[in-house]
Amino acid sequence: MLADMLASNAHLKVDSPLPIDTDLSESDEKEVQTQIPAILILPPEAISIFWGAFAANHLDDVAVSLRRLSHATQRQAISTAIQILSLIPDPKEQPYFRKFLRNSGAAKDLPTIIARAFVKGTTWKRPSGPGHHCALIIHMPFWCDPSLGDDGKASVDADARGAWPFHRGDTGKSARCGNGTAPAHERLQGILGAIEAMPGGHYLNSTRIQLEDQSDMCDGESCNEDPELSCSKCKTVQYCGKECPIWYWKHGHKVRYFKTEY
User: Does residue 76 carry a pLDDT above 90?
Assistant: First the structure.
């Protein structure tokens, strides 16, 4: 499976971690950077299935790796792990990514780790880059529980939010969010300002409810109702009635169905 191959080449799998203080080798890095462009030229449907498989099976592996890796001695490995995360489609569109971020036990300190890596600096790797990393940072507070952070205002700890370079206005003007519609530092500055201005996690909680409403609408044939049911196994696909699971299974869920540990 391509998803397993990518996780193995990047040494993200729990059963084959990098030794302590050992960074990715040139050959490992070459394998990863050859595989990613090859995946991204596949038909859109195949790319979507690939990221679903990767998110369902290896997001826990990525999180464990990032908690273990040292920025001082394993910068390439950290940069590659974040590059892969940043290429996963928006959680609003990728249900397994969304499910992972909404699981506080699985996500826990990951938002702060990723934010701090941005501040310390990572090695940009095409087709990812600063804008993709910034977009990933945006996803973290929007989808993760604000109580994961040390002050309850966002899932990213307060000191990490204060250290973000775009908050100080000294970087980011050339970095654009993943969709390329706005400079990343401007969007992130606005989000940061709203987080700090409102009490507790009110801003992020209310925004997440809106995002969930946009992503959870059942899109079975002729459906426009709010979903009340979900797939009993993967817990990601939403249904508004008993006939919808049959429609979904025939129209793509059969090849997008993955059991997760989170």
Answer: yes
Alpha-carbon torsion 262, 178, 89, 229, what sign? positive
Structurally, how many domains does the chain consist of? 2
Say whether both 256 and 176 belong to one domain: no
Q: Based on the domain organization, do 110 and 226 belong to the same domain?
A: no
Can you give the three-state secondary structure of 145-191, one letter per residue? CHHHCCCCCCCCCHHHHHHCHHHHCCCCCCCECCCCCCEHHHHHHHH
**Domain match, 209 and 221 both:** no
Tell me: do 247 and 189 sit in the same domain. Answer: no
Q: 63, 106 in Cβ contact below 8 A? A: yes
SS (H, E, C) 112-132: HHHHHHHHHCCCCCCCCCHHH
146 and 254 assigned to the same domain? no
Indicate if 187 and 221 belong to the same structural domain.
no
What is the percentage of the chain residues whose pLDDT exceeds 70?
A: 87
Task: Give the single-character DSSP code of 234.
Answer: T
Nearest to 88 by CA among 146, 116, 128: 128
By residue range, what is the domain housing residue 162? 2-215
Could you tell me if 57 and 129 lie in one domain?
yes
CA 251/CA 246 separation, integer angstroms = 9
**Count of C-beta atoms within a 10 Å radius of residue 159:** 13
pLDDT tens profile 128-152 = 888 888 889 899 999 999 999 999 9
One domain for residues 230 and 203: no
Question: Do 140 and 185 touch, CB atoms closer than 8 A?
Answer: no
Which residue from 117, 137, 133 is spatially nearest to 125, judged by alpha carbons?
133
| Alpha-carbon Rg for the chain in angstroms | 18
